[in-house]
Amino acid sequence: xxxxxxxxxxxxxxxxxxxxxxxxxxxxxxxxxxxxxxxxxxxxxxxxxxxxxxxxxxxxxxxxxxxxxxxxxxxxxxxxxxxxxxxxxxxxxxxxxxxxxxxxxxxxxxxxxxxxxxxxxxxxxxxxxxxxxxxxxxxxxxxxxxxxxxxxxxxxxxxxxxxxxxxxxxxxxxxxxxxxxxxxxxxxxxxxxxxxxxxxxxxxxxxxxxxxxxxxxxxxxxxxxxxxxxxxxxxxxxxxxxxxxxxxxxxxxxxxxxxxxxxxxxxxxxxxxxxxxxxxxxxxxxxxxxxxxxxxxxxxxxxxxxxxxxxxxxxxxxxxxxxxxxxxxxxxxxxxxxxxxxxxxxxxxxxxxxxxxxxxxxxxxxxxxxxxxxxxxxxxxxxxxxxxxxxxxxxxxxxxxxxxxxxxxxxxxxxxxxxxxxxxxxxxxxxxxxxxxxxxxxxxxxxxxxxxxxxxxxxxxxxxxxxxxxxxxxxxxxxxxxxxxxxxxxxxxxxxxxxxxxxxxxxxxxxxxxxxxxxxxxxxxxxxxxxxxxxxxxxxxxxxxxxxxxxxxxxxxxxxxxxxxxxxxxxxxxxxxxxxxxxxxxxxxxxxxxxxxxxxxxxxxxxxxxxxxxxxxxxxxxxxxxxxxxxxxxxxxxxxxxxxxxxxxxxxxxxxxxxxxxxxxxxxxxxxxxxxxxxxxxxxxxxxxxxxxxxxxxxxxxxxxxxxxxxxxxxxxxxxxxxxxxxxxxxxxxxxxxxxxxxxxxxxxxxxxxxxxxxxxxxxxxxxxxxxxxxxxxxxxxxxxxxxxxxxxxxxxxxxxxxxxxxxxxxxxxxxxxxxxxxxxxxxxxxxxxxxxxxxxxxxxxxxxxxxxxxxxxxxxxxxxxxxxxxxxxxxxxxxxxxxxxxxxxxxxxxxxxxxxxxxxxxxxxxxxxxxxxxxxxxxxxxxxxxxxxxxxxxxxxxxxxxxxxxxxxx
Length: 955
Fold this sequence. Notes:
The chain is 32% helix and 24% strand. The chain is α+β, with helices and mostly antiparallel strands and 955 residues long. Among the domains are: 153 residues, Mth169, Chain: A (2-Layer Sandwich), CATH 3.30.1280.10; 261 residues, Alpha-Beta Complex (Phosphoribosyl-aminoimidazole Synthetase, Chain A, domain 2), CATH 3.90.650. Strands 18-20-17-21-19-22-23 form a 7-stranded mixed beta sheet. The protein has a 7-stranded mixed beta sheet with strand order 35-37-34-38-36-39-40. Strands 3-1-2-6-5-7 form a 6-stranded antiparallel beta sheet.
């Protein structure tokens, strides 16, 4: 029996008001009234009493009213637009209500499907209703129905959106004995054109040669498995390939090379414990704990489904943390967003016929922000650090960075928890969610530019509630009971990735695909193997511990299934219903990818734009790349787990901080500091200096808050475009070279990284003309470190009238408009060491790293944060250590290596003695009232309004 429960707001409907405002802005002015209902379609044999009991549990009687099967409407409406998920798409609320109903009613066979209903009254046509519906749903994952409403009651059809796949004969062998044109087609479009393999001709010929030696053709599942394993997304082929005269590739030479050199120099003082070998990187926290960090990108999925792409990105990197060693606890989330102009209206299409319209930058922004919110807040993990950048070149494909910090004890008894290894005879266990068609070809899709053939099945939606149960059961219980030998998440490539990676530990694996629990029947074997359905992990469990492990998972509501066994055969063998369908050497699977020799070409130098500088301090603060993004920060819970110290927003004026500190172990005074550096626009002039600035800023921000140079590590995330273009490869090489130079100079090792090489959009404009939009080469450098004493951290805002203001470091002419600043690491290192010392001696009242917008912005932010003014004289207080002419442009120089600090008068002698051998300038003092720079007074209220202007538009 199928029933519907409708929930509506009593009185004023705030949701309806929000939608009405948005629709009227889109030109739909004929709507006189809107009512929004939540619908729960219940598939179960429930009687009226049980349905009423469930409806009462779902609703708040003070704010909501419920109806069963027929809803009483407030007035006469013309249309009802229903938006719900397509069959098989993860319905998180539906899953939660299902579990609630099962517990409440003590019944097993209950399924719940959610949707939202928009009741519209007024002068509105059917055509307009369809246009409104298009603003409400994503056709890749959602369905839309428009119903005419008659009378004052609503009784919509009760239809269950179940997946019903026809039973299909699985494709087995694929002939590769074809000409090169056909090989290229298979590599691009996949077996029977069912989805991209992202394998070029060189790769296809290597596969052809391997199977010729075996004397047989490959099965479809074997081709799919190779495509996932060899994808740029998983294998990082460009970073691994020889390039010019760098025979070991950029990763080994510059990124790993820097870390190896730094670790060797540090010897016993090495803070690294696990780098580049596990799901996250790890450094020491103290004698008992390690901290881990990993930052992922989820760019391509977020372009097609912003909410799903972002939530999957954050819960996926949460699993990377749980998958570190034998399981780290996620203790903090980070994010980074690069969007097109959210006020831009220009339409873009994936196809020439203009039937596949891309989402607007506004919709992408709102969906991505909501996705990270849903993933982090629902999982009970504080979101403490983040940034946002805007550039029209992110219009075709946004960049979505999602990171997670983890905490793991070094030992449990005598067992080192940061080491793992599947053993011969261990059972292969899949835990968590079930497998569906969502996420198929996700890894290969993310290795390509977006175009008309980008597959809808590549989009998946994570379920943070299911994953939270899994995470807690593993990290809080199974790990410390020593119930498993290894663990890895099912992310890109699904089982094909996790099982095959873990098989390297034992030297073999045997999988029985028919044992894998499915969301719905009749999936083909290759779909089960590569599906990226979320909230799943693979574990190696000794047979003697399986019963205890199974009982524990069952008691915590986590599904756990034996799907095979780890072996030492040297092969990955997969069977389906007794028939072997994959039998491949692990050596070829992981190392058979053919070597490519890449060549670069120096691009012409772009002309420097020396005009068009900053017009005023207020206008600069109002720049959406410089001003507040509190509208994002305020949506993310950073207080959960109770460890927040330096928060995302600081001071009475709520300024965004450049570094954040939190306390992962509440019984310890030690903290973790997080920061980042990212300068996409600098890459237009010099990719080397862009990367140098990112490294320098990530380190400077952390030190300015209280981090220590000797206990600081870095992560790199390269997001490039058209990466086989020799000019783009040159920029990539230069950026990687700078990473090596400045990481080594500062002694900060890289512990983890990720690259995304094809952030391009190949589509059509509003007139059907071909258009290509490529992101600016973007490098995100994240820093993570340990603060010895959280009581000594410093926040950025001015606090007390009479405090003396200083600028540490040299100011030169370079601005973001007129050029790119170059960095003297030797000089900066001396400044940062003095800064460390000043913070350690508690001589500073405030400390703010000078970044985008320069000194003027730093002064304004410090005043806004403290809601207090300052008197600054750039012409007076001369110091032999200051550099550069003091004129208005000096305010906006983005010279690196500078920190704005304030010092209480009683600490001035000790401070000036400390800084006497580094460049510094005494600028003035903190004062009540406005910010006065030389003879010009800037209203504090106007500065605050300008700083928060963009953010306030989106609240």
